[in-house]
Amino acid sequence: MSELILVEREGDIATVILNRPQKLNAMTREMWQTLGTTVGTLSADDTLRCIILRGAGEKSFSPGNDIAEFETDRSNKRQAIEYGRIMHATAEALTQCRHPLVAQIHGICVGGGLEIASLCDIRICGVSSRFGAPIKNLGLVMAYQEMAPLVRLAGPDVALEILLEGRIFDAAEAKEKRLVTRVVADDQVEAEARAAARRIADGAPLVARWHKKFARRLADPRPLSEAEYDECFDCFDTQDFREGYAAFLAKRKPGFTGR
Fold it and tell me: Given this model, what pLDDT does residue 71 score?
């Protein structure tokens, strides 16, 4: 595992850390590639129930791509296409991750950092966090795959406002724009992210995966097939349903096994 992307495991919860604090966790080509590979590996792990994604330290989630790499890795269209394929493969890995993703956002969450956070299911930040996508100042556009999560969360008009103005805005505005789901005191971000992950992990893992799948599918305008409708009721044949039902009647905490 690259030291630039760290994984800490605590039982059924994994924490993935963008680990470049000396550069405020600015993303490099290696970090994008390793992040995608890491999330893909964790997604396939049935012993996991939730993943927290954060930047190292408490100054920054990530300010986006390291501009210093542009001279060597993104100086022309050909290089940019190759770099983009890596970024977009990682975005796809985050999108398709079976386990719920909780973004733990400290400080700066800008550009590519905002793109990564937008691909998480729950996004928790501190009151002093800052957001934006000022890539117009670099003469760059946000590609379709990168813009899609912003449009999905904020809507096309607000996504355009963010990109056309290039402003950096505060946590309250980010919440208003639906870019974050929860704003807490700065010193409570980690505790709240962990509490959210614990609540998720205590639930039935198969149900969490189905809910993620269904939410993605509902974004597709095609009519649901009969097989897809039928899948909504597969949960009734699981051991977890029987356990949850019995625990409810017995007034005890359920012990879900993911079967």
Answer: 83
Q: What is the CA radius of gyration of the chain?
A: 19
Which alpha helices (DSSP H) does the chain contain, by range?
A: 29-43, 70-73, 77-96, 112-118, 144-154, 156-165, 171-176, 189-202, 205-218, 226-231, 239-250
Rounded Cα–Cα distance for residues 171 and 121 (Å): 17
Q: Measuring CA to CA, which residue among 112, 193, 117, 189 is closest to residue 152?
A: 117
CB 24, CB 106: distance < 8 Å: no
- 58-67 b/e with 16+ CB inside 10 Å = b? bebbbbbbbe
DSSP secondary structure, 155-171, as one string: -HHHHHHHHHH--EEEH
Q: Is 224 in contact with 217 (CB distance < 8 Å)?
A: yes
164-222 pLDDT, tens digit per residue, is 999 999 999 999 999 999 999 999 999 999 999 999 999 999 999 999 999 999 988 99
Whole-angstrom Cα distance, residue 51 to residue 55?
13
CA-wise closest residue to 52 among 132, 122, 151: 122
Which residue is listed with tokens 């940019």? 80
Per DSSP, the chain holds a count of helices (H) and strands (E) of 11, 10
> Tens of pLDDT along 150-168?
999 999 999 999 999 999 9
Q: Apex CA 189: angle with CA 12 and CA 48, to 5°?
A: 10
Alpha helices in 44-177 (DSSP H): 70-73, 77-96, 112-118, 144-154, 156-165, 171-176
This prediction has a pTM of 0.94
Query: What is the bridge-based pairing of β-strands 60-62 and 101-105?
Result: unpaired
Residue 1 pLDDT greater than 80, yes or no: no
